[in-house]
């Protein structure tokens, strides 16, 4: 007999491989991408403005509210009914911005991640509908039905949460791709100065990491070449207005210090100090 772990592994593996989902997922992701294109919308929904992904932070509110509502419904007795109703309503209100931030993040995924993300969103949407029906039943005095619908919603939100956790902790969606990349602490020779023309850029190896060098006049900027959002190759990006734009989802990092000018990235791109010694460009990690 299969263990629970093996069953869940098998379930997620099947979802990842279920290509029929692409028929819904791909056009929906394209529509979401279009909706979040304005920089202000992108920066808010991604969490760029707070320097942290927004969606996982917001999920705490509906999950927390609905968990406590389930507890009160199960063991709180008649006196806890108003508090349970308030928690159901709070979860519903918080679920709307949470879903918007999640859709924004999901639109940047593809393939297996996009399929699992679609089912994650479907489970949470089902929870939303069940909780809305639960609130309506509670308001109409049908407390038994309201409790039953709430508990069904709680089951759906737990299923959605499992898949959300799978996306982040197993698939690595939205995990900072530069978290374990460490450049050289000592000055390291990477390129002849003559090989980097003014306005030009090159990717070079510096110790264990690859670095994007960009020359602007007398200054040479150096950023990690792997976009921290989801690993895009910055050496294939475009250089404009003192920034590099990632070719995958358009995250825009200031060359001088790696600051995020436009999301979906939420963390600054790691940068390096540079100097020219005897006609050679050298880099080292910022101290
Ligand atoms: S990988 Fe997503 S913006 Fe760079």
From TrEMBL:
Q: Where is the signal peptide?
A: none
Q: Which InterPro entries match?
A: DUF2231_TM, Rieske_2Fe-2S, Rieske_2Fe-2S_sf
Q: Name one GO molecular function term.
A: 2 iron, 2 sulfur cluster binding
Under CDD domains, the record lists: Rieske
Q: List each copy of the Rieske domain by range.
A: 187-283
PROSITE patterns hit by this protein: RIESKE
Record Pfam families: DUF2231, Rieske
| Keywords from the named record | 2Fe-2S, Iron, Iron-sulfur, Metal-binding
What name does this protein carry?
A: Rieske domain-containing protein
Which species?
Kocuria dechangensis
Q: Give the classification, highest ranks.
A: Bacteria, Bacillati, Actinomycetota, Actinomycetes, Micrococcales
């Amino acid at each position: 007999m299969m263990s629970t772990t093996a069953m869940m592994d098998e379930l997620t593996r099947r979802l990842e491989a279920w290509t029929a989902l692409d028929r819904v997922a791909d056009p929906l992701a394209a529509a979401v991408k279009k909706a979040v294109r304005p920089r202000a919308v992108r920066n808010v929904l991604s969490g760029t403005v707070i320097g942290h992904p927004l969606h996982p932070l917001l999920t705490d509110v509906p999950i927390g509210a609905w968990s406590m509502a389930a507890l009160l419904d199960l063991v709180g007795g008649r006196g806890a009914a108003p508090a349970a109703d308030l928690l159901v309503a709070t979860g519903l209100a918080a679920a709307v911005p949470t879903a918007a931030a999640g859709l924004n993040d999901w639109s940047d995924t593809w393939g297996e991640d996009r399929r699992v993300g679609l089912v994650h969103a479907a489970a949470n949407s089902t929870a939303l509908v069940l909780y809305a029906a639960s609130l309506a039943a509670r308001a109409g005095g049908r407390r038994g039905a309201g409790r039953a619908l709430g508990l069904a919603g709680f089951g759906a939100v737990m299923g959605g949460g499992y898949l959300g956790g799978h996306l982040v902790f197993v698939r690595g969606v939205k995990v900072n791709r530069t978290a374990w990349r460490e450049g050289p602490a000592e000055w390291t020779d990477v390129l002849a100065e003559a090989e980097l023309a003014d306005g030009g850029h090159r990717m070079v190896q510096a110790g264990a990491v690859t670095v994007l060098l960009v020359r602007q006049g007398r200054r040479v900027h150096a950023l990690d070449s792997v976009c921290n959002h989801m690993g895009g190759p910055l050496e294939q990006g475009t250089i404009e207005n003192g920034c590099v734009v990632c070719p995958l989802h358009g995250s825009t990092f200031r060359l001088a210090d790696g600051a995020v000018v436009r999301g979906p990235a939420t963390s600054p791109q790691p940068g390096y100090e540079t100097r020219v010694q005897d006609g050679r460009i050298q880099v080292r990690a910022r101290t």
